[in-house]
Amino acid sequence: MEMDNMEQTGGAIFEQGKQSIKVPVPVYIRASASVVGTKEGKGPLGSLFDMIGVDDKFGCDTWEEAESTLQKEALTLAIGKAGLKNSDIRFLYAGDLLSQSMASSFGLGSFGIPLLGVYGACSTSALTLASATIAIAGGVAQYAACVTSSHFASAEKEFRYPLAYGNQRPASSSWTVTGSGAFIISSRKGECDRAMLTGVTIGKIVDFGVKDSMNMGACMAPAACDTILTHLEDFGRVPSDYDRIITGDLGMVGQQALICMLREKGCDIENVHMDCGIEIYDKSQGTASGGSGCGCAAVTLSAYILKQLEEKKWKRILFVPTGALLSKTSFNEGQTIPGIAHAIELVSP
Predict the structure, then answer these.
(1) Which stretches of the chain are assigned E, i.e. beta strand?
(2) Which CATH architecture has domain 196-347?
């Protein structure tokens, strides 16, 4: 990009309120792709996903390799849809739930794209999109890619119990989505852009002292509440300014907690709120409170949310994936489970 354009888009012009960024130049989601497992394919959004696995190992020997394959397939599809080559992508932002983000490391190495690994637990899809948007609006990249994933079996192995243990799930528990979403972000308007990214609110760590790893909604709802309130204040908006305010994976328990917490603050979002974890599964699928995982918000955004913006059924939405910041070590040491949420404002192209 030319230097004068970089100067115009850099510096304080980005700042908006306490912790938000107003994107001063057009930034587009050029293309996206979603790859999911068998359970997700049988859910309400099944017909909208780009690829559904024949089985959840995707032809691999291990669950971790399967998750890497999810990312590889999603990014390949997204780059192809955008009509680009790997070499056109300046930066790749990616993350997952596994130790040292191993699904991303092994899944994306062959693309040969400079990688910025990010971790925000289940809020990672928003964190990758925010990072890419800042880079492109700042004039340091023309194209960037964002990829996140989760896998039910690899997550259970990482955070809870071996699957063979057969533990019972309480009603507050969530089901980790097997899926990967990939997005191509561009500074140039294309013929079929899916949405424009116009604002970002970076969330803070919020810890209400919850220690129950089987109630992720309760862990993350306070962070979602904080970020939504901050975003509305920073941009001088009210809930009705959005067609939807969409959280990532609070599930049914977390949704009710969020709505009640916001009402106590004088903010009512019930009429416009939607949660990806509720939308992705049918109640008959036995997923208790709903879906979760990095892949939950990512595949729902790609398959369903962007479709509504693309078709101009919605004009403006606030996308707020949430994350529970725990590890095996912190949980086994009796630590609390802090939450975080990041918000992305998307408008119809």
Answers:
(1) 15-16, 20-22, 28-36, 51-52, 91-95, 115-117, 143-150, 175-176, 179-186, 195-201, 244-247, 273-275, 291-292, 316-320, 322-324, 339-341, 343-347
(2) 3-Layer(aba) Sandwich (3.40)
